[in-house]
C-alpha cells in the first residue's frame, strides 16, 4: 500500500516540476529535493510574474528567512487571487520547514487545473490516516474512531506529563479532577494562540478563574507539543508577577487550562479604554514586568511574546505576565529553538534571523511594549508584518517617540541594541535612572 502511495507522490511531483518548468521557461535543478528548490519562494513568485505580473511586483532574492517566507506568502495570495480555493492552499511553514510537501504539491496541481479551467479537488491529508484517499467517503465510524484515538493519545500524553511533574503542591493538576472540580464557563475575555479564554466559576468553591479552552481536533502534533510545553512550564512557575496556574481538565474534545483570573484584563485593554499612558505610569508597569522577566530568566525561561496584550493587571495595578504558548526553556534546545516565534512588531532581530533565542530577546520586546504604551502602537505599526520584520533587522534602532525624556530614550536605546549581549539584563535595567526617577516601588523579594 505504501509503495503505491510513494509512486503516486512521485508521479505528482514530476507533474508539478513539469508545470513549473513550462511556466518559467527553464529547467529546474532539483537535486532530489523539491522542497529545497522551492523553499526560498523565488521560483514560485517567478511563476506568478510569468502568468500575471501585476500580482507579483517584486521578489526578494536575499537569503533571509523572513524575506523567503514573504515570497511564499505573496505566492499564496496570488494563486488565491487567481482562483485556487483556500482549502487547497498549503501554509507558508509547510513549505519553508518541509513539514507537508504533499500539500505543497497539491496546491501547485490545483493551480495548474485552475489555469486550465478545470475543477480542483479538495486536499486529503493522508499523513494522519492509514486509509487511502479513495476511502475518504467511508470515513463514518472509522473517522470517529481515528479522532477518538488521536484524542486518547493526547490525554495519555498530558496525564503522563502531570504524573512526571506531581509534587509541585498545586491543585487541581490533572484531568481526573474534572469529577471533583466543576466549572461553569462565563463570558469570553480574550483569545490566545490556540483558543479562547473564558471567565469561569468554580461551582464547588465559588472561585472565579480564567479558563483557556483549546479544541483538540483543531490541533496538529506540533500544536499539541506546544500546549504540553505551556502546561509543563506553567506548572513550574510561581511568582507574584506571573499569572497563577491551577491545573487542567482534559476530555475528548477540549483541553481546558485553568488560570488565575486577573480582573483588569490586559494592558492593551486598558490602553484602548483610557488612551496613551504617561511615562511615570509606564515606568511603574515596567518595574513589575522586569521583575517577572528577571524571575523567568533566572529559571532559564524566555517569554518570547511580550507585548501589552500579554501583560495582565489587577485592580491595584499589579502586573501578571501571561500567554506562555511560545516561550522557550534555554536548557531544552530542540529543533524549534531557533524558530521564528513571537509577534512581528515586538520581535527581536536575532529571532527573525534565526540566530537563536536568548533572555535579552525579551528586553527588545519590552522596549517595543513601552513604545506601545506611550504612543498606543508598537514600532512599525504602519507597515505590513513582513515589511516590519525587514526594518527590525535592517534599521539601527526602531523609531522612538519625539517627546520622551532623555532617561527613557537612554533606556530604550539599551533595549534596542542590535547585539543581544549589549542589552544588559532585566536585573540591571531595574537599576536604570529612568526607573529610579519615576518609581518608588520596592523590589520584590527574590527566590520565589
Automatic annotation (TrEMBL):
Keyword terms of this UniProt record: ATP-binding, Kinase, Nucleotide-binding, Serine/threonine-protein kinase, Transferase
GO CC terms: cytoplasm
SUPFAM superfamilies linked: Calponin-homology domain, CH-domain, Protein kinase-like (PK-like)
Disordered: annotated segments: 119-154, 160-179
Residue sites binding ATP per the record: 212
Similarity comment: Belongs to the protein kinase superfamily.
Annotated protein name in UniProt: Kinase-like protein
Amino acid at each position: 500500500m505504501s509503495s503505491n502511495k510513494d509512486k503516486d507522490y512521485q508521479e505528482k511531483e514530476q507533474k508539478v516540476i513539469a508545470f513549473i518548468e513550462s511556466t518559467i521557461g527553464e529547467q529546474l535543478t532539483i537535486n532530489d529535493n523539491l522542497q529545497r528548490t522551492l523553499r526560498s519562494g523565488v521560483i514560485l513568485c517567478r511563476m506568478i510574474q510569468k502568468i500575471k505580473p501585476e500580482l507579483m511586483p517584486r521578489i526578494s532574492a536575499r537569503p533571509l528567512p523572513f524575506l523567503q517566507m514573504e515570497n511564499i506568502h505573496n505566492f499564496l495570495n496570488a494563486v488565491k487571487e487567481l482562483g485556487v480555493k483556500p482549502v487547497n492552499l498549503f501554509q507558508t511553514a509547510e513549505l519553508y520547514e518541509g513539514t507537508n510537501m504533499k500539500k505543497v504539491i497539491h496546491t501547485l496541481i490545483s493551480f495548474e487545473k485552475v489555469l486550465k479551467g478545470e475543477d480542483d479537488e479538495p486536499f486529503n491529508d493522508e499523513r494522519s490516516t492509514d486509509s487511502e484517499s479513495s476511502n475518504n467517503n467511508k470515513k463514518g465510524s472509522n473517522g470517529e474512531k481515528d479522532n477518538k484515538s488521536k484524542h486518547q493519545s493526547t490525554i495519555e500524553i498530558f496525564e503522563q506529563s502531570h504524573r512526571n511533574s506531581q509534587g509541585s503542591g498545586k491543585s487541581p493538576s490533572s484531568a481526573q479532577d474534572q469529577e471533583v472540580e466543576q466549572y461553569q464557563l462565563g463570558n469570553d475575555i480574550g483569545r490566545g494562540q490556540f483558543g479562547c479564554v473564558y471567565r469561569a466559576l468554580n461551582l464547588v468553591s465559588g472561585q472565579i478563574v480564567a479558563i483557556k479552552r483549546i479544541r483538540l481536533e483543531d490541533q496538529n502534533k506540533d500544536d499539541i507539543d506546544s500546549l504540553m510545553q505551556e502546561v509543563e512550564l506553567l506548572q513550574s512557575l510561581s511568582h507574584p508577577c506571573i499569572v497563577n496556574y491551577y491545573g487542567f481538565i482534559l476530555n475528548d474534545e477540549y483541553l481546558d487550562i485553568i488560570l488565575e483570573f486577573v480582573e483588569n484584563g490586559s494592558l492593551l485593554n486598558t490602553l484602548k479604554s483610557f488612551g496613551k499612558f504617561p511615562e511615570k505610569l509606564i515606568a511603574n508597569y515596567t518595574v513589575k514586568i522586569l521583575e517577572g522577566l528577571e524571575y523567568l530568566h533566572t529559571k532559564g525561561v524566555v517569554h518570547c511574546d511580550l507585548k501589552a496584550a500579554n501583560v495582565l493587571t489587577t485592580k491595584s495595578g499589579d502586573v501578571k505576565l501571561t500567554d506562555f504558548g511560545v516561550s522557550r526553556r534555554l536548557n531544552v534546545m530542540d529543533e524549534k529553538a531557533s524558530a521564528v516565534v513571537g509577534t512581528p512588531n515586538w520581535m527581536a532581530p536575532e529571532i527573525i534571523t534565526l540566530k537563536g533565542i536568548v533572555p535579552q530577546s525579551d528586553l527588545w520586546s519590552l522596549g517595543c511594549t513601552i513604545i506601545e504604551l506611550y504612543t498606543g502602537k508598537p514600532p512599525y505599526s504602519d507597515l505590513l508584518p513582513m515589511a516590519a520584520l525587514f526594518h527590525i533587522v535592517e534599521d539601527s534602532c526602531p523609531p522612538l517617540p519625539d517627546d520622551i525624556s532623555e532617561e527613557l530614550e537612554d533606556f530604550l536605546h539599551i533595549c534596542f541594541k542590535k547585539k543581544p549581549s549589549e542589552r544588559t539584563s532585566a536585573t540591571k535595567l531595574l537599576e536604570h535612572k529612568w526607573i529610579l526617577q519615576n518609581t518608588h516601588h520596592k523590589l520584590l523579594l527574590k527566590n520565589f
